[in-house]
Write a structure and sequence with these properties.
Strands 6-14-8-13-12-11-10-9 form an eight-stranded mixed β-sheet, with helices on both faces. It has helices at about 10-25, 35-45, 80-85, 100-115, 155-160, 185-200, 210-225, 240-250, 295, 305-315, 335-350, 370-375; strands at about 5-10, 55-65, 65-75, 90-95, 120-125, 135-140, 165, 175-180, 205, 255-265, 280-290, 320-325, 360-365, 380-390, 390-395. The chain contains twelve helices and 15 strands. Helices cover about 35% and strands about 25% of the residues. Helix 1 (about 10-25) packs across helix 2 (about 35-45), helix 6 crosses helix 11 and helix 7 packs across helix 8. Helix 11 links the parallel strand 12 and strand 13 (about 360-365). It is an alpha+beta fold. This is N-acetyltransferase domain-containing protein.
Length: about 400
């Protein structure tokens, strides 16, 4: 039986192998969206990758008779391990053929690397990025993934479970709702939002891209405050968040990037001290609606070549069918009634079911207080769930 060897992939040419391998692995799969090649090359390069400003890592390939059959990148985020007190080794760019020997070779190398660096737990897949395309698809692999959501082979779960990996974020869910069809529950939600806004001092507004740095500051506060209750939560770097938001800025409609705010001294605020007040307003919610660029990118081969950018521009002449809602961020200090107000008011500002025919919502539900409200309002008439989760494994 041929030996599977794992080799460190350090050079630029070797990193290119890591990124081109999935093109062979997923060839012919209509639901696989090739990642943007040049952006990923920058991510993997220690000289240009944002991750390497606060961590370090290496890539490995599993080879059989000189043929690449799988890849993995292992890394330590020194900043997050320091502030959380954990000893996590993240792994990503984790792609492999359906072969137990290949999987074992990659995992054994990842575990050895983690132990060599004093790390006690593997967690991932994270492609040196905690927000973009992380985790494995647990349910919903029969459809095109929305922007920032992962898409993985169905056999990946089998191999992970055989190694006794456990799910780390089991409630990372998304639901699909076709707004081109009548939906009484949605109509109720829009009417509720209209009524709540008119009866309170809550305001819901679109993003102001001319005040970008302050908008980043509001989101930075909300994202860390809203998710702080999650076990092992790792706070965002402001620089990482700003980089991600700048990418959104180039194609987002500011009227669909919604902020909910209350004025200084509002009765809706349960914990007014230490709240950021910019221009006298306190942010209490954020709901970004983004066009699903994956509807374009699935046809452009990862934008490796100049003509693929021309192809992308041609595709972008039409409106995508899907509007994605990546996160609904509401701090836990906001009360239950106010939570309904913020959430419903935000939905009220989004396009109504008949306003833009063909839009579909995909709501990415995180471990925030929001899902317990949305469960009774959004789920009727939805298709789903779609579930993507990172996984964890003890190395010691």
């Amino acid at each position: 039986m041929p030996e599977i060897r794992t080799i460190n992939l350090r050079s630029r040419r070797a990193r290119k192998q890591v990124l081109l391998f999935p093109h062979r692995l997923y060839a012919g799969d209509p639901n696989w969206v090739p990642p943007r090649f040049h952006e990923q090359m920058r991510t993997l390069d220690p000289r240009t990758g944002e991750f390497f400003t606060h961590g370090y890592g290496e890539c490995f390939g599993a080879f059989e008779n000189g043929t690449l059959r799988g890849t993995v990148c292992v890394a330590e985020d020194e900043y997050k391990n320091r502030i959380t007190g954990l000893k996590d080794c993240i792994f990503g760019f984790f792609e492999y053929e359906n072969d137990t020997a290949v999987f074992n070779a990659l995992m054994n190398r990842a575990v050895s690397w983690a132990r060599e660096h004093g790390l006690s737990r593997l967690i991932g897949p994270f492609n040196l990025d905690y927000e973009n395309n992380y985790g494995l698809v647990v349910e919903g692999e029969d459809r095109l993934p929305t922007m920032l959501c992962a898409y993985t082979k169905d056999y990946y779960l089998e191999h992970m479970r055989r190694w006794n990996f456990s799910e780390d974020r089991g409630r990372n869910l998304a639901f699909e709702l076709d707004l081109s069809r009548p939906n009484g529950e949605m109509e109720k939600l829009f009417r509720l939002g209209d009524r709540l806004v008119s009866r309170s001092d809550l305001r819901v507004r679109g993003a102001d891209f001319s005040d970008f740095e302050n908008e980043v500051e509001r989101i930075y506060y909300l994202i860390n405050k809203s998710l702080a209750h999650i076990p092992d939560f790792k706070p965002w770097h402001r620089e990482d968040l700003a980089k991600t938001l700048k990418e959104f800025k180039s194609f987002a409609d500011p009227e669909l990037i919604l902020f909910a705010e209350i004025p200084r001294g509002s009765a809706l605020s349960r914990n007014p001290e230490n709240q950021p007040l910019i221009g006298g307003w306190e942010p209490v919610g954020w709901l970004p609606g983004l066009p699903n660029l994956n509807e374009y990118l699935v046809h452009t081969g990862g934008l490796r070549f100049p003509w693929q950018f021309i192809q992308l521009l041609a595709l972008m002449r039409r409106q995508p069918r899907c509007l994605t809602i990546k996160s609904v961020l509401i701090p836990r200090n906001i009360g239950q009634r106010e939570l309904v107000s913020v959430c419903s008011a935000g939905c009220f500002r989004l396009p109504s079911p008949g306003a833009i025919p063909g839009w579909t919502f995909l709501l990415h539900r995180k471990k925030t207080p929001t899902p317990r409200i949305l469960q009774g309002v959004w789920v009727p008439g939805c298709i789903g769930p779609i579930r993507c989760s990172p996984w964890k494994y003890r190395t010691q």
